[in-house]
Design a protein that fits this description.
With 622 residues, the chain is mainly alpha-helical. The chain has helices at 3-6, 25-48, 52-60, 65-72, 79-107, 111-130, 159-182, 208-219, 223-236, 247-265, 268-281, 316-319, 323-333, 337-351, 382-394, 400-416, 447-455, 460-482, 516-528, 531-548, 573-586; strands at 188-190, 195-197, 244-246, 295-297, 303-304, 314-315, 362-363, 374-375, 418-420, 426-428, 430-432, 435-437, 439-441, 492-494, 549-550, 553-554, 598-600, 606-608. It comes from Seriola dumerili (Greater amberjack).
Length: 622
């Protein structure tokens, strides 16, 4: 066969173009094949490229199921493909509806809540990325957060009260701004020399003022400052230190401050940090009796007691002031060990004989026996009694053991330590081996507020009597202020040698911005609404402003009887945590941190009552 026949499109040089009608049968067949291939390619593109109409119907919900079946319906050669298409469309619709709902919900949230959600999602991803290897302190159980009532208040109606409350908030701003400017990240501030200051109580942990002040900032609605503090905690608060810390001080300031910040704000970072630190404190309980050491190296877990404390004893106010925080740590972590540790302390104490019903300040953690028989409701003993009462209140009045221990101890204190001076001032002396030392510390002045707080739970025939005792102690502590040149109270004052409510020793004349007297004023105001307590509180404000305020913050003074102040150049973290908070609440309405929903730890960090009735949702913590 000629080549031209095999290759019809191959022309010889002399060949002319021919019309289609002149094509031979073979040429027509080849053209038909080419045309068929072209048509097949076009239709293939339609069937196999992404179907935009399906995508649009999934997003905008315009295409109905009938339309879908028309395209892929029963006449289709692949009914399985039709089912897959329907499932894909259904999933697209469902995902889009969910996205719309989430967007609508997000738009209704405050910016800080949106930020918190983002951080929570980031934490979740971080946890998932860790896999199953190793112990993850961040892997906490889910806790449904409900903010208890009264986290923030409202402006008092009385103009004078409102003005005074605003002034106290300005004092907080001056103290905080000064710390932030001159000592940010340090534990405390030196306001005269304008630099950071650190006590060895915290080892190498930093930021005591930041953590201590968190709840005060929130309560005063200083939210910009609170957010800055939160950011520092999230990025810089580190407990992985090879250093010795005071278990007591770290617990009441750091653990207490973090717990309170969590309950007020709901921010998960505070719960996580509180539990992390709590776990690092647990090795302190590794003693033969379970009575914890006073000092603990957070890295090695090795503990010891203060060398000056009665033959290596643990101190009542230190091991007895863990209960509130550790009960909440168990609640928030799901780890019962925290609660078990502090309940064991009670077991040890209940096995021991108490001299005259009193609890000595020293207990040996190895032998489980008392050290020196020195009893004080001030330093070394004070907050143990406070935590017995508050453990009962925080349990929604179900902790009958704590209640009994408190009222029995209070009766022993009244019988053995409480006295009245010749001038009619009621005071609480110290007991040393059966002999009374007629001195009362500034720290002891918290007892007026404690007795008032517990009076309602006392037997009915003692409630009025205890309120009278509380009022008399408040008056005595006010006198300790009124009888100084600076109108600020000394560290301790005496009732002997012809003096009453006056410090006679030089090492007792200093004032370090302590809160206990103002704390009692706040409680007495709440329970009596006697205006004198607000007036006494305002006297303290004026004295603080006149004698303790400096350009770089607030400083303690070395001698409250001197005509001009000699500053000690330390702005204590508890000044922001306690003194200013109690002053602010003294001039706030009673529904701001109400006592039936909140209990204050000994550093004035509010912790919610753990309600026995779980239907009372505002007080649930899980």
């Amino acid at each position: 066969m000629p080549v031209a026949t095999l290759l019809p499109f191959t022309a010889t040089p002399n060949r002319k173009s021919a019309s289609p009608t002149s094509f031979r049968l073979t040429e027509k067949f080849i053209l038909l094949l080419v045309f068929s291939a072209f048509i097949t390619l076009c239709f293939g593109a339609i069937f196999f490229l992404p179907d935009s109409s399906k995508l649009l119907s999934g997003v905008f919900f315009h295409s109905s199921a009938v339309e879908t079946n028309t395209r892929t319906g029963p006449d289709s050669s692949d009914s399985g493909s039709a089912g897959n298409d329907e499932r894909v469309l259904a999933k697209i619709r469902k995902d889009h509806e969910k996205a719309l709902l989430e967007a609508k919900d997000t738009l209704q949230k405050r910016p800080d809540e949106i930020k918190q959600d983002i951080n929570t999602d980031k934490e979740k991803v971080a946890k998932e990325s860790m896999g199953q290897g190793g112990k993850d302190v961040n892997n906490l159980p889910f806790v449904e957060y409900h903010r208890p009532p009264g986290a923030t208040g409202h402006e008092p109606l009385d103009p004078e009260t409102r003005e005074r409350r605003t002034r106290i908030k300005e004092m907080m701003k001056h103290a905080w701004d000064s710390y932030r400017r001159y000592a940010w990240g340090s534990n405390e501030l030196r306001p005269v020399s304008k630099q950071g200051h650190s006590s060895n109580l915290f080892g190498d942990i930093k930021g005591a003022t930041i953590v201590d002040a968190l709840d005060t900032l929130y309560i005063m609605e200083m939210f910009e400052e609170f957010d800055a503090a939160t950011d520092w905690v999230e990025k810089n608060l580190d407990f992985n230190v090879n250093a010795e810390v005071s278990v007591f001080e770290v617990n009441i300031r750091f653990v207490g401050g973090l717990l309170s910040a969590y309950y007020l704000s709901g921010k998960e970072v505070f719960r996580r940090k509180a539990v992390e630190l709590g776990e690092k404190l647990l090795p302190a309980f590794k003693t033969p009796t379970g009575i914890p050491w006073a000092l603990l190296n957070l890295k090695s877990g090795i503990g010891r007691n203060w060398p000056w404390a009665s033959g290596g004893s643990s101190i009542l106010a230190e091991y007895g002031t863990l209960h509130l925080e550790f009960m909440h740590l168990s609640k928030l972590s799901g780890n019962p060990e925290f609660a078990q540790k502090v309940m064991n302390i009670r077991k040890v104490l209940n096995r021991l004989d108490k001299p005259q019903g009193l609890y000595p300040n020293y207990l040996n953690p190895n032998s489980g026996q008392w050290g020196q028989h020195h009893v004080s409701v001030g330093g070394l003993g004070d907050s143990f009694y406070e935590y017995l009462l508050k453990a009962w209140l925080m349990s929604d009045r179900t902790d009958e053991e704590g209640k009994k221990m408190y009222y029995d101890a209070l009766q022993a204190i009244e019988t053995n330590l409480m006295r009245k001076s010749s001038g009619g001032l009621t005071y609480i002396a110290e007991w040393k081996g059966g002999l009374l030392e007629h001195k009362m510390g500034h720290l002891t002045c918290f007892a007026g507020g404690m007795i008032a707080l517990g009076a309602d739970g006392a037997p009915s025939d003692k409630t009025g009597h205890q309120m009278e005792q509380a009022a008399e102690i408040a008056r005595t502590c006010h006198e300790s202020y009124a009888r100084t040149a600076l109108k600020l109270g000394p560290e301790a004052f005496r009732f002997d040698g012809g003096v009453e409510a006056i410090a006679t020793r030089q090492n007792e004349k200093y004032f370090i911005l302590r809160p206990e007297v103002i704390e009692t004023y706040m409680y007495m105001w709440r329970f009596t609404h006697d205006p004198k307590y607000r007036e006494w509180g305002w006297e303290a404000v004026q004295a603080l402003e006149q004698h303790c305020r400096v350009e770089g913050g607030y400083s303690g003074v070395r001698d409250v009887y001197a005509s001009t102040p000699n500053h000690d150049d330390v702005q204590q973290s508890f000044y922001l945590a306690e003194t200013l908070k109690y002053l602010y609440l003294l001039f706030s309405d009673d529904d701001h941190l109400p006592f039936d929903h909140w209990v204050f730890n000994t550093e004035a960090h509010p912790l919610p009552v753990i309600k026995k009735d779980k239907t009372d949702r505002p007080n649930e913590v899980e």
